[in-house]
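Hi support team,

I'm filing this because I wasn't sure whether my run with S-adenosylmethionine finished correctly. The job status page said complete, but I'd like someone to confirm that the output block is well-formed before I use it downstream. Pasting the exact inputs I used:
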Amino acid sequence: MTAEHKPKVQARFGDSAEAYAGSAGHAQGEDLDRLLLWGRARGAARGLDIATGGGHTALAFSRFTPTVVATDLTLPMLGAARSFIAGQGVAGVYFSAADVEALPFRDESFGVVTCRIAAQHFPELLPALRQVARVLRRGSSFLVEDNLGHDDAEMAAFILEVEKRRNPSHVRAFRQPEWTAFLRAVGLTVIDEAIMEQRRPWEQWTGRTRMSPEARADLDRFVLDAPARCREAFGSSSTANTIVSFTDRMLLLRADKD
Ligand SMILES: C[S@@+](CC[C@H](N)C(=O)[O-])C[C@H]1O[C@@H](n2cnc3c(N)ncnc32)[C@H](O)[C@@H]1O
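And here is everything the job wrote out:
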């Protein structure tokens, strides 16, 4: 899957780079605040932000981390992040095009690694986490946030279909025990965790990924016609023909390298 998947990531995120750099939902939020709280407590001198997207997490960490390296697989995204951060007058953020599965950094070279709302696009989690564990110093933290997988198989399948229709580079969302086991397998131990619900305006969320009008209409129909229990699990609010918003459930973890 890896070889054919990554061009999908680059195509979809390349087209929407500016939208991610300008996204208010990525620029702030209770979720970002929690990662910052955990990060400040670590007080690392050098941080790595994987899959930086529009650069919002890298920018926020640069306020208390002297050097932050921001990486992404998608070159236009990295360009958008660079312009966005330059516009904030911030020094100390460096950019490097990198696939999470092949990070071009020495072993144990970062005091903190962040990865926010991106792992759901990685073709496989384990090779990515092995790289994270490799570049982290012993005793340092990996701070990760991603969509929380649903416990119920039918609801999980429904939400997966919505996500894939909106952005075909979505792979899947993992449940908390799955994350813990993956992290354990690479030598990282979960120390802190949080689950946060975030209300997402439907227009903004679907608009950001530059769906065609046909694909968007099909997605709306798919959600509006879904069984009530699926719409409930998705937390969607709608009138007869219009979806207004839905609730994303996010899992945040701090895992330390043994
Ligand atoms: C939703 S954006 C990330 C948002 C960002 N972390 C923030 O806090 O605002 C997802 C990013 O993951 C990147 N990505 C997906 N697969 C990747 C991979 N294998 N290696 C590196 N970056 C990847 C995409 O290019 C995209 O920029």
